[in-house]
Structures are given as structure tokens and as C-alpha cells.
């Protein structure tokens, strides 16, 4: 059974495990998606307002969290995304008159979420951007530059010499914005500077020698990009103009909003620091096991934006992530056992061929159990937790993450299962070029008992 539903219809579908629903744009919040069904959303809003300011792997398309937020919470409620990525769910929360709370350990994710959800006054932004553009074009015309090109591993392999110089020119001009506008409110200045940094970050992969469509930052002999002197600056200014327009549109929505409340705690998904029973709804898409290495994906951007200094080497950063592949040899010398019916046979089969991968899978679900426990703590009774996660193929073994998380949630952490449905993916910003590539995600809807 296939039902095509436009955003003008309100639909309640009878429970049917074989049902398949297709939505063009928004899903009306009164629509009941049956347990066990599959849906396909033809997204219209991937670049709506500031949603398209920066690429991000395995990114939410706005219509899914928007539907979950509207269906399982009320206006003025507090919505948490404990692994917020690029901030799609947080932005959708405030756009729908909720308080948005976003947490992520990834430095790029923190910056993107902050910029994506922070409206900037158009007149002030226009003045700064106009002055910045003049400074950039002046430096480029003079051909003189005394800025600092950052040092990092394989830098000269990743970038051509003239690209390095142009990126450094742009970075210097952006970093000088707070000094040049010292009379402006400090917080506003840093909001504008962070917006400019994200725009710069958004072009770095494209002007590098790395494959622009791979989740890992890699060089490929067959890919030789056509990048000429001046292209980096030209691309930045073109992108800046486009994103200023998007930010102006966000400001218009913000100006007419009844409430705009965003909180971005410097904490983790396992230790949120939030008060118990303070959250009405949680919505998230956890990192995939063995599929996206976020620090490696964003390493060039992190080098240029000085986001690695505090955390040290990239390997140290990776160990802080749920789903990390940075593990110690002593961790996987023996088979780990969880006493979970859905997980232990999988761990054993993977261990036969790859003990390290077996431990990585074990560690992911161990971390996710701690995360589910934390979300149970911060949710109000009757609150829902919606998790979008795909299955994985690891060393030829299918890992049905939604089934394992459902067992953990219901048997270990006390959640009740409301429903599970499959959301097909039809478009990615970045390809996953290996067998583990996902065709879609399972959406688990959990409820905290009243």
C-alpha cells in the first residue's frame, strides 16, 4: 500500500505493517505513522533559512524532526537534541515556538548549531560584510599578505600554495572583525564573526585537494580539481552573499517569533548537566557505527578554525565520541558480553574475524545505554524520545541498531516503546562509498512512563 500525502492534508492511517507513505514537504502533525511502516519524505527545506549554511554528513532533513517536534510536544515546551550535529532539530524547535537545547562533543557541530540558531540584525551584518569584502578585495589586489598560514600534518598535500595563501587572507580578515568594530556590542560582534567563520569553513573542503563527496578527508588520484588563483576568494564572497540573504530571512522569522530560546550547554550526551525532568521531548540522530568518522571528516575545517588546540591530537578528540573507532588494543583482547539477546550473537560473529570491530560495536551500545539512561533522567514523565538510526553491515554481519537500542531502552532503562518506522533516504550531501552505506533510518519513538 502506497499513500502519497501532500503537506495540505491531515491523515490518520490504520495500523498496517506493510504500509508505505510518501510525503511531499511537511508531514501534518496529526498524521499517525503506523508502527512498522516505511515513509519517504521528498524534502523541500534542506536549505531553508540557515539549514543549508554548511554540509554535514548524515544530516537530518528538516521535515522529519519538524514532524516529531510538532507531534510529540506543545508550543513553549523544551526540546533536547543530545547529539545535535549541525543543529537541524534545535533550529526546528525554536522555529516552532519551543525552547531548543542542543549538545554535541564535535567542535564543528557546536559552532554550526550556534550560528544556525543565532539571528543577526541585517543592518549590522550588512555593514560588517561590506567592510570585510572591501578589505579582502584590497588585500587581494595589492598582492601583499603578512598573515599566518597554520601548520598541520600533510598541509601542503591538502592544499595548493595559492589556496593556502587565500584561505589565510580570509581568516585574517575575519579574525580582525572584533577589533575593527570595538564600539559594537561584544556578543553581537562574536556572533557575526562566528557566522563568517562558518561561511569560510563551508568552502574549505571544496577548495582543497580532497574528495568533496567522501565522509573521510582523502586524496584520490583520479580527482584533480580545477582551482585557479583567486577562486578561493571568489567562492567565499559568492557563498557569503548567499548566506547573508539566508541569515536575513532567519532574522525576519525571529523578529515575528513569539519566543526564541536556544540553550547550547558545553556538556555531553551522557552527562548533559540538565536538571532532572526538565525536558518535554528529545529528538536525535546518533552517529553511525563504523560509518562516519566526524573528526576526520571535519579535520581540515578544524585546523583552519583553530578548533583542535584545546583537545590535542585528532585521536584524543575521537575518543570522546559515541561510536568512536579510536580504541586501545587492550580493549579488545577478549570478547565482550552484554547479556542482550539482540547484541551478543552479533558481537561473537564479528569477533571471529575482527576483535577490534567487535569491541567498537560493543562500546557504541554501551555508550548508548548510558545516553538512554541520561535522557530518561532529564525527560518529564510522559515525555518522548525519538531516535533516528540506521542499520550497519560490519565485517559482513548485519547490525540492526534499532532492535538493539529498543531492547536496551525497554529492558534496561525503563522506556516504553511507542512505535518504530522506517524513513527512507533519497539524498545525501556526502556519499558513503562502502558497503556500510545506509538506505534509510529507523525512527524509534520511546516514551517515559508517567
Give an overview in words.
This protein is α/β, with parallel strands linked by helices and 450 residues long. The chain has a domain at 122-255. 40% of the residues lie in helices and 15% in strands. It has helices at residues 63-72, 88-95, 107-116, 122-142, 155-158, 161-175, 177-180, 186-207, 231-255, 294-297, 299-304, 314-318, 344-353, 355-378, 401-412; strands at residues 2-6, 20-24, 38-42, 78-81, 99-102, 261-263, 279-284, 379-389, 392-394, 397-399, 416-424, 440-447. The strands form 2 sheets. A 10-stranded mixed β-sheet has the order 1-2-3-11-12-8-7-4-5-6, sandwiched between helices. A two-stranded antiparallel ribbon has the order 9-10. α2 links the parallel β4 and β5. α3 packs across α8, α4 (122-142) packs across α6 (161-175) and α8 packs across α9. The chain is globular and about 70 Å long. It starts with a strand and ends with a strand. 43% of the residues are buried. Mean pLDDT is 87; it is low at 4-17 and 428-437.
Which labels suit this protein?
single chain; 450 residues; alpha/beta; two-stranded antiparallel sheet; 12 strands
Q: Write down the overall geometry.
A: globular
Quaternary organization: single chain
- Helix content, binned percent: 40-55%
Strand proportion, as a percent range, falls in: 5-15%
SSE sequence, one letter per element:
EEEHEHEHHHHHHHEEHHHHHEEEHEE
Order of strands across the biggest sheet? 1-2-3-11-12-8-7-4-5-6
Major sheet: size, sense and barrel closure?
A: 10 strands, mixed
* Mean pLDDT metric: 87
Tell how many strands the DSSP assignment holds.
12
**Termini gap:** 35 Å
- The Cα radius of gyration reads 23 Å
Low-confidence segments, given as residue ranges, are: 4-17, 428-437
- Tell me the number of helical segments per DSSP (H or I, 4 or more residues long): 15
Structural class: alpha/beta
